[in-house]
Design a protein that fits this description.
This protein is of the alpha/beta class. It folds into 3 domains: 2-174, 3-Layer(aba) Sandwich (Molybdenum Cofactor Biosythetic Enzyme, Chain A), CATH 3.40.980.10; 179-257, Alpha-Beta Plaits, CATH 3.30.70.2860; 262-414, Maf protein (Alpha-Beta Complex), CATH 3.90.950. The chain has 14 helices and 17 strands. The chain has helices spanning 10-13, 20-31, 46-60, 77-84, 93-107, 155-174, 193-200, 232-250, 262-273, 287-293, 311-318, 322-328, 333-347, 394-414, and strands at 2-8, 35-42, 62-66, 89-91, 120-122, 126-128, 137-141, 147-151, 179-188, 211-217, 220-231, 254-257, 277-281, 302-307, 351-357, 372-379, 382-389. The strands form 4 sheets. Strands 2-1-3-8-7-6 form a 6-stranded mixed beta sheet, sandwiched between helices. The chain has a 5-stranded mixed beta sheet with strand order 14-13-15-16-17, with helices on both faces. A 4-stranded antiparallel beta sheet has the order 10-11-9-12, sandwiched between helices. It is elongated and about 80 Å long. The chain starts with a strand and ends with a helix.
C-alpha cells in the first residue's frame, strides 16, 4: 500500500510550527509496511487543500491529512475534501450532543457555538473516534475505493487517533501480507561522517543488502539502517546483522541506538558505578546541567553545578587564580582544569566537568576563533582536558560543547 500525507496549516508553511505530525505518521506507518509515497504541506485555504488532496488521490488513491478540523473559520479541511467527493456537509446530532455534555461536565460551562462546526461531517463519511479531544476524525471513500482519512492537527490528538482508530483500518486494507519497513539507528558522536564512511568501506561485504544512511547532526552522526518489504522476523535479523557489522568498525563511537540520549547513557553508567557528577559552565551557560537534569531520576547522580559566566565567579566560587586568568585567558586549558577541580571541591563529587569557550558570534580572535572550546574532566582527582573548535552558530557551538563534555565522561566511565 502506498499513501500520501497532506499536513494542513499556514503555521506550518510559515515555519512557526514544526511539522512533527508527518514524521510520526511516516515512522508509524513504515513499521506497518506502508510506504509514504509523498508528503505535502499546504495552507489553510479551501483551494490549497482541495488541490493538494486531489493530486494526492490521483497518484495513490489513499491520503491521510492532519489539521483543519477545529472550530474556527480557517478550519476548512472537511468541506474542501467533501466537495472533492461530491458530498454535502451534514450535522451529526450524536456528536453534537456528546460535545455539549463534555463541556458541561468537564469545563462546567456551555459549549461555545463555534464548536458546532466540529459536528458537521461529509454525508456518507465514517466518523473516527477521537478519545483525546473534541474533533472527530473522518474516513471518506468513493466508489472507486479511493479514500481520505482526516485527523486533527494537534499532535497529541493525532497520535492517539492514529494508534486507536486509523491503524486498525489500515491493517484491514493490508490484509495478511505481513511485510514491513523497519529501521534501526546507531548513534555516534565524536567522529565525522566521512571518517565513518571510510571505516564502513573496510567491512567485507559492507552491511549486506540493508540500506545505510548517514545523518550528521549537532549530536554526532546517526547511522540509520533500513529494510523494506520483508517479514518482521527477517527484517529484525537483517538489521541485527548489519548493526553488528557496523559496530566492528565504529564500536567505541556508538553511545546508543534509535532515540538514545547521551546524557541518559552517562547517568546510567554513573549510577551503576555509584558515582556523582557536578558541572562548571561558562559558554554553555547551564546547558550541560540542563541536559543531565532533564532525565528523570538524575537527582541520585547529579549534585549540582556552577554557571561561571563572569571571571569574577570563576575566581570566587571555583577558586580559579586571578594570575591564571590574566596569563592564559578564560578560554584556556589551565582555566578549564581549574574550573573542574574547583567545582569538584565545592560540591564534593566524584566526576566534575568544566566547559569554557567562545560561543560567538563575537569575541573570537586569531588565536581563539569563534567555536574554540576547552573541556576538562576531573575524575576522582585525575584531570584530563581537550581543545575543540566547534562549527556552527552560537546555539550549535553550545550544544556541541555539552555533547562533547558528556562524551568525554562516557568514555572515561567505560575504562
Amino acid at each position: 500500500m502506498k499513501i500520501e500525507v497532506v499536513t494542513i496549516g499556514d503555521e506550518l508553511l510559515l515555519g512557526y510550527t514544526i511539522d512533527t505530525n508527518a514524521a510520526h505518521l511516516a515512522r508509524t506507518l513504515a513499521a506497518e509496511g506502508v510506504a509514504i509515497e509523498r508528503r505535502t504541506t499546504c495552507g489553510d485555504t479551501a483551494e490549497s487543500i482541495a488541490t493538494a488532496v486531489r493530486e494526492a488521490l490521483d497518484r495513490t488513491g489513499a491520503v491521510i491529512t492532519t489539521g483543519g478540523l477545529g472550530p474556527t473559520s480557517d478550519d476548512l479541511t472537511k468541506p474542501s475534501i467533501a466537495a472533492l467527493f461530491g458530498r454535502e456537509m451534514v450535522l451529526d446530532e450524536e456528536h453534537l450532543a456528546w460535545m455539549q455534555e463534555r463541556w458541561r461536565t468537564r469545563f462546567q460551562r456551555p459549549m461555545p457555538e463555534s464548536n458546532r462546526q466540529q459536528a458537521m461531517l461529509p454525508s456518507g463519511a465514517r466518523k473516527l473516534a477521537n478519545n483525546h479531544g473534541s474533533a472527530p476524525g473522518i474516513w471518506l471513500e468513493d466508489d472507486r475505493g479511493r479514500w481520505v482519512a482526516m485527523l486533527p492537527g494537534v499532535p497529541r490528538e493525532m497520535r492517539g487517533m492514529l494508534a486507536d482508530t486509523l491503524l486498525p483500518l489500515v491493517r484491514e486494507r493490508l490484509g495478511d501480507g505481513g511485510r514491513v519497513v523497519r529501521s534501526r539507528t546507531l548513534r555516534t558522536t565524536g567522529i565525522g561522517e566521512s571518517h565513518i564512511a571510510d571505516l564502513v568501506a573496510t567491512i567485507d561485504g559492507g552491511v549486506g543488502d540493508v540500506g545505510l544512511a548517514y545523518l550528521p547532526n549537532a549530536d554526532g552522526t546517526d547511522l540509520r539502517l533500513t529494510v523494506r518489504d520483508a517479514t518482521s522476523d527477517d527484517a529484525d535479523a537483517r538489521l541485527a546483522n548489519a548493526a553488528a557489522r557496523l559496530r566492528t568498525v565504529v564500536a567505541d563511537a556508538v553511545y546508543g541506538e534509535d532515540a538514545a540520549d547521551l546524557a541518559e547513557v552517562v547517568l546510567e553508567l554513573s549510577r551503576s558505578l555509584g558515582l556523582s557528577i557536578g558541572v562548571a559552565e561558562s559558554c554553555t551557560g547551564g546547558m550541560l546541567g540542563a541536559r543531565l537534569t532533564a532525565i528523570p531520576g538524575s537527582s541520585d547522580v547529579v549534585r549540582g553545578g556552577v554557571i561561571a559566566y563572569d571571571d569574577a565567579v570563576k575566581r570566587s566560587l571555583l577558586g580559579v587564580p586571578e594570575a591564571m586568568l590574566r596569563e592564559h585567558g578564560a578560554v584556556s586549558d589551565p582555566v578549564a582544569r581549574a574550573m573542574a577541580a574547583g567545582v569538584k571541591t565545592a560540591i564534593g563529587v566524584d566526576a566534575a566537568l568544566a566547559i569554557t569557550g567562545v560561543a560567538g558570534p563575537g569575541g573570537g580572535t586569531e588565536e581563539k576563533p569563534v567555536g574554540t572550546v576547552w573541556i576538562a574532566l576531573d575524575f576522582c582527582g585525575e584531570v584530563q582536558s581537550r581543545r575543540y573548535v566547534m562549527v556552527g552558530d552560537r546555539a550549535e557551538v553550545r550544544h556541541r560543547s555539552a555533547q562533547a563534555a558528556l562524551e568525554m565522561l562516557r568514555r572515561r566511565l567505560l575504562t
